[in-house]
Amino acid sequence: MSKASQIAVVTGSSTGIGFETSLALARNGFHTYATMRNLDKSGKIMEIASNENLPLDVLRLDVTDDKSIKEAIGQVYDKNKRIDVLINNAGYALAGPLEETSTEEIKTQFETNFFGAIKTMQSVIPIMRNQKNGKIVNITSMGGRIAIPLDPIYHGTKFALEGLSECIRYELGLFNIKIILIEPGAVGSNFWNNIKMANKSENSISPYRNVVDTVSETFSKMSENVISPSEVANVIVEAVTTDTPEFRYVVGEDAKMIMEKNKTLPDREFENFIKEQFNLKY
Fold it and tell me: pTM for the complete prediction?
């Protein structure tokens, strides 16, 4: 099937990777549905699509709202009678020590990063199964393979999505549905500016205050040397336009370096390497 007749759905398209991926797919001929929770943020992508005459539409889709998911996917299917590509991108990072993270904050993080992706896939899989073709791209990050300090819940969601993706690639392979994982390192987008701290961890008398400050300083330095969202988008386009995509795509020299060290170093040595990177002395 030609790209011009293929239908792509991207979640979390108002900024960052989702924004750039929606545009990149449309520029490569996919009829792209850029979805987002808040349509008030759709102005920029709609303006670019209009100026470039791109095959791109914007829809509201909140991955934490079952009705919103069903309505958005239903609209796409009713209009096109197929969906060829799903990009699960919507998500955010919750940072802070486990002890100081509330159960409600944990549930909210999982609802967006993990269950949101599951529910969106469950809406799209029957369509792809019936057409006996499709590609589902789950954007995890190197944080789905390697954990760094003070992101226990974020890593929990990404490790979970990695494990789920490994499993379903077998069951969905029966119907020629391919599962693809995208694992970026540090990405220069609003994602970094929107890291949400667990409420208690911002307390000045927190027993973790020094650790939080040290790790936050490292995060700030990391944000000075990042890959662009468009680089990730280009890898996603590469993955969905090949007939035989890889299961995993690691994006960014930082991610490749850290994953290589994780693979080659003994656990204790790798732990010490991470502590050194984050200036943790104990």
Answer: 0.93
